[in-house]
Design a protein that fits this description.
Rossmann fold, alpha/beta, 3-stranded parallel beta sheet, 117 residues
Amino acid sequence: MWLWCSQGVGASDVVIEPTGRESMGALRALLLAAHWHAFTIIADERSSIGVLLRPELGGLLRAPPLTPTVVRLPAQARSHTIFSRLADVSRSTRGVIVLMCDQHLARMVSYSHMENV
């Protein structure tokens, strides 16, 4: 776990951020506990694909009994493209979808979903 303080944080504030290994371990534990062994990961090329390519991190999600399918999102994807990709995967698999991305992309997906509900 990383502890750090930035200029945007007050002098008495500490930000606790999990490491990549802790995040992947927590995701693996969630998937196993829920018995979601087959799932699709939709990952953006800017922030998440690098994590999945690292054997010590991505390997946690590929180790048996987990069997992920990885779908890459283009680096400059628009909200319509992202939501369309999510809808395609959802229709084809009817299974669990894990969206791995930065906060900006997650907000775009969330707002697109709210507009279509």
